[in-house]
Amino acid sequence: MIQSLIITLIIAVSFVYPGNTNWLLGLSITTFLTLIGNVCCGLAISSFVQNPNEANSILPLILLAQTVFAGVLFELKGKVEILANSMLSRWSIRAYGSLVDIQSLVHPNLKDTFDIYVANNNNLMLSWFSLIGLSLLYLGFSYWQLKGKKEY
Q1: Residue 69 near residue 90, CB atoms below 8 Å
Q2: What is the largest CA-CA distance in the chain?
Q3: pLDDT at residue 79 above 90?
Q4: Which has the closest alpha carbon to 33: 137, 134, 141?
Q5: Kind and range of the H or E run holding 79
Q6: Domain assignments of the chain as residue spans, ordered by start
Q7: What is residue 73's DSSP assignment?
Q8: pLDDT tens per residue across span 20-58
Q9: d(CA 87, CA 62)
Q10: N or C: which end of the chain has fewer CB within 10 A?
């Protein structure tokens, strides 16, 4: 929770208030859901490996996938978009982009490319529910995997 507040304060200081009445609350909720989702992802990863060294070996691949499939570096279409929708970073960045009205900072000729960052409640709610859903999915994977392991 403290991490969420610190990150929210950094964003609040770094970006111009776009005029949304619940901007800081939205930033706090998005940050909290992102942090919880990443904790759940970490639990899922740790439940599938045998020791910490394996987890550390997989971590760079997970971070690379989160970065590439977030949809910020380039536009994702087709089957790749389906995979991208399973990434926490995609929904987190989409929520942040919507909250800080990132589309208003884009050149008018490129606005169609950034339609996922439209600042409206539908976009924000979709992002939040996706973060919650992915968190629950990762928890389900963890539970399923750990349930099958024997205690020693």
Answers
A1: yes
A2: 61
A3: no
A4: 134
A5: helix 79-84
A6: 2-52+61-148
A7: S
A8: 657 788 888 999 999 999 999 999 998 888 888 888 888
A9: 10
A10: C
